[in-house]
Each structure stands twice: as structure tokens, then as C-alpha cells.
Amino acid sequence: MKQSLRATLLELVVGVVLGGCMLLLGSWAGAKLGSGASNGWGDIIGALFGSVLAFPVGFVAGMWLMAWRLHFPHSLWRGIFGAALGLVLVLLLAEPLRLNRDSRVMGTLLYLVPSVAALFGFNQPQHESGSAGRR
């Protein structure tokens, strides 16, 4: 149990650090891609869009890097699915739950929910397939 908690905390820290780096890169790339919009808001919208998409990618990559380096059990695809599902849930529930009324709440949830969902999915035990359970 102690090793599992330590591994999860290491994955979390490395995921946040790499996710933060990807957030900066995604913000910069989104601002550059959106700067050509004629209404003047393209760079801001592009930076926000880029950061919201890049942070979960960096977070999952950081968790995977730590788990791979230290040979901890993990499920990369479940981590990716958790991050995507968390992001989609926040975006879908923003209007019904009035999350978009306060930009601090919405911004926090756009980064927090996908990270928690990815961490949960990433650390789900993998089921081994084999003939041991068959008779």
C-alpha cells in the first residue's frame, strides 16, 4: 500500500510538471495559430484552446514516463480515456451546472477533472488474459 501511494504521488507530481510545460507550449502554439483571425480575439481563444488540450496530454505523458521509468503497473489507454472523458464531461456540464458563470471555477475544473480522471484510469489494475480462469 505504501509503495502504491508513493508511486501515485510521483506520477501526480511528474504529470503536473510535464502538463504545465505542455500547457505553456499549447498556449503559445494556439496563440500563434489563432493570431490571424480578423476579429482580434483569435490569439486569446487559440491560447485557451491550446492550453486546455495540451495540459491533459502532458499530464498523461508525465504519468506514463514515471510509471515506465520505475516499472510501476499502469494502463496508458485508460489514462488517456480518463483525461478525454473528464474534459468532455466538464464541457458538456458547463451550462447545465452553470460552471461557465464564473471563469475561475470553469478554468479550475477544465484542468482538475481531466487530471483526476486520468490519474484514476491510469492506475486501474490491468486484467491479465490467459487460460488460468478457463476450464
| Helix content range | over 70%
What is the tally of helical segments?
4
Catalogue the unreliable spans.
none
Domain count, please report it: 1
Radius of gyration: 18 Å
Q: Report the span from N to C terminus.
A: 33 Å
Beta content comes to: under 5%
Biggest sheet statistics:
none
Q: How many strands in all? A: 0
Q: Order of SSEs, N→C?
A: HHHH
Give an overview in words.
The chain crosses the membrane at residues 7-29, 44-68, 75-93, 105-122. Keywords: Membrane, Transmembrane, Transmembrane helix. It contains 4 helices and no strands. By secondary structure, it is mainly alpha-helical. The chain has one domain (5-123). Helix 1 packs antiparallel against helix 2 and helix 3 (76-93) packs antiparallel against helix 4 (103-122). The radius of gyration is 18 Å and the shape is globular. The chain starts with a helix and ends in a 13-residue tail after the last helix. The relative contact order is 0.15. The mean pLDDT is 86.
